[in-house]
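Sample intake sheet
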Amino acid sequence: MCGRKRFYEHLTSHEHTERELLAEYRNAADESDSPAFQYLVSLIVEDEIRHHRVFRDLAAALRTEAELRPEQPAIPRLRNPSASVATASSN
């Protein structure tokens, strides 16, 4: 399997594989009498939610590029591909 395809599959499956773990974190926090533990778990869960959003954005951007779609991906391109082609052909 090509590296890009493996990367895309990792990005798209990651959230699903961690879903149960996050539910366990939340349950442990709910059952805990420690406000400090509850706070720490809330920070971890918030960070994981943000992390999963970044993975979804990366996967969407990778798919946009692979399908050569003209729209701007969720994560902006670092360069304009047509500009580099124009520059290369003018040299």
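Comment: The longest helix spans residues 35-66. The chain is about 80% helix and 0% strand.
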